[in-house]
Amino acid sequence: MTTTIDRLFPRGSGIVRPTRAGAITVNQYSRRAILAIWAAAALPMGGLAWVVAPAVAPDGGESLTRALIVLLTAGLVWQFVLVAGLVGYEQRSLRWSRLREALWLRPPQSPRTGRVGGRTWLVIIPLIVGLAAEELIPDLPHAVSREFGDFLASDAGRAMFSGSWGWFAVVMTLLVFNTVLGEELLFRGLLLPRMQGAFGDRDWVANGVLFATYHLHVPWVIPAALLGTLTISYPTKRYRSAWIGIAVHSAQSVVFAVLLLTLVV
């Protein structure tokens, strides 16, 4: 019997990419399937931020920030579960040898020289600079309690995290699932390699737009996030490595982690 999952993610319509163990099949998703995955990531995050968080913290302020940290961490963990479920369904396995190829978790390969790894990693330096430039784009107006960076700079933020290793651990979990195991793994590891069939050579453009508009939980960053199309989506495709996006995106997390650590200690 053909299920809904079978119709959205058919195992037979794929392209073959070599691996050391032989070959794996990477399915090309339809636009319908891509939008379904986008919705499965974006809608829970939006609902948690704008419906659930205010419900559990109606007084706003610091209590709202605490609720957002916990709830959005849960939303990011869900994205990891979603990726694991979809790639496991596709590959019939979660072995690292298969995941590495299916999710582009391999060293970057220069499209000009064919060099794998080594000095090719240096490409992330200008990309990190480009991502940092996005911070110069003004955000749309929003409450301080909904912007983690602004909250950390406030008196309430410093008081909340001073000596609090428990909250430090929660935020570190959020950061890891945000830029390594959640957003990047979903959009650049799972989706991008499977979007060419639906969007052709502009798959990286569509990927960047989907990633920007996914930020329903923090919509004021959407204009700046569109630049991630150039600093993350395109380089990830060009070098065929999700580690590019993970490394560039995680630079932001490292800054937050260092700032947070100075408050805790």
What is the overall shape? globular
Number of domains: 1
Task: Work out the strand percent.
Answer: under 5%
Cα end-to-end separation: 58 Å
Q: What profile does the largest beta sheet have?
A: 2 strands, antiparallel
The helix tally amounts to 13
State the helical fraction.
Answer: 55-70%
Q: Unreliable runs, pLDDT <50, ≥5 residues?
A: 11-22
Oligomeric state as shown: single chain
Number of strands: 2
Gyration radius, in Å: 19 Å
pLDDT average, as an integer?
84
State the main characteristics:
single chain, 265 residues, mainly alpha, 13 helices, 66% helix, globular
Protein described:
- This protein has 265 residues and is mostly helical.
- The chain has one domain (24-264).
- Helices cover 66% and strands 5% of the residues.
- The protein is built from 13 helices and two strands.
- It has helices at residues 4-8, 31-56, 61-91, 96-102, 124-134, 148-153, 155-161, 165-191, 196-199, 203-213, 222-225, 228-239, 242-264; strands at 14-19, 22-27.
- The longest helix is centred in the N-terminal third of the chain and has 31 residues, at 61-91.
- It is globular and about 55 Å long.
